[in-house]
Design goal:
The protein is of the alpha/beta class and about 190 residues long. The protein has a domain of about 130 residues: 3-Layer(aba) Sandwich (Glutaredoxin). It has 4 helices and 7 strands. A hairpin with a 2-residue loop joins strand 6 and strand 7. The N terminus and C terminus are likely disordered.
């Protein structure tokens, strides 16, 4: 009988993407304010590098990045990972969406980007969910753009990167064309 009682106290196994940890609040944020489904990641590096970076998350949540940041706003083409990660360092929230997301959902994301100075929105082939919100070391997977947790994520993490006060305008507005994968091949992931 003791063994049966002990089994009921064991926590459920939770499978997290990549090296994600259970969500922990940002310093000074009460634990009750953490968003359901939030993943946190340890991001040990934020150095400037030239060229392509292989990130452990899709899309990335931080790490080495291009010296030029991506201008915040709405894009209808993918942006380079290395530029977007620099924007995350400046406190941007990067909202990515599958290219086949319904147009009414994309319109909601466009409106959200227009209302914020540090929000970057772009399509991203091969996402693990229809909409993914990323901030420095944080990520949230969503089925729809009108999920109320998206607004909570933006409120909690916008302007909350390691380089506080960093700009999100005056960088680059370059985009990466969406590659059309050959039949039978995995989808390409943008990484300019």
């Amino acid at each position: 009988m003791v063994a049966a009682a002990a089994l009921t106290l064991l926590p459920a196994l939770v499978v997290l993407p990549g090296d994600a940890q259970q969500a922990t609040p940002v310093a000074g944020t009460p634990a009750d304010d953490v968003i359901a489904g939030l993943f946190t990641f340890d991001v040990p590096s934020r150095e400037h590098v030239e060229g392509h970076v292989d990130y452990p998350q899709t899309p990335p949540v931080g790490g080495p990045h291009n010296p030029v940041f991506q201008n915040c706003g709405f894009y209808d083409q993918p942006v380079g990972n290395e530029h977007a990660v620099h924007s995350l360092e400046h406190g941007a929230v990067w909202i990515t969406y599958r290219p086949d997301l319904p147009t009414d959902q994309i319109a909601l994301l466009r409106d959200l980007a227009a209302q914020h100075d540090h929000v970057l929105v772009s399509p991203y082939p091969g996402l693990p969910a229809p909409v993914v919100a990323s901030a420095w070391g944080q990520q949230l997977w969503l089925d729809k753009a009108d999920d109320p947790r998206l607004g909570q994520f933006v409120a909690l993490f916008e302007n909350n990167g390691p380089e506080l006060g960093g700009p999100c305008a005056g960088g680059t507005s370059e985009t990466v064309p969406i590659a059309t994968p050959a039949a039978g091949s995995p989808e390409a992931t943008p990484s300019a």
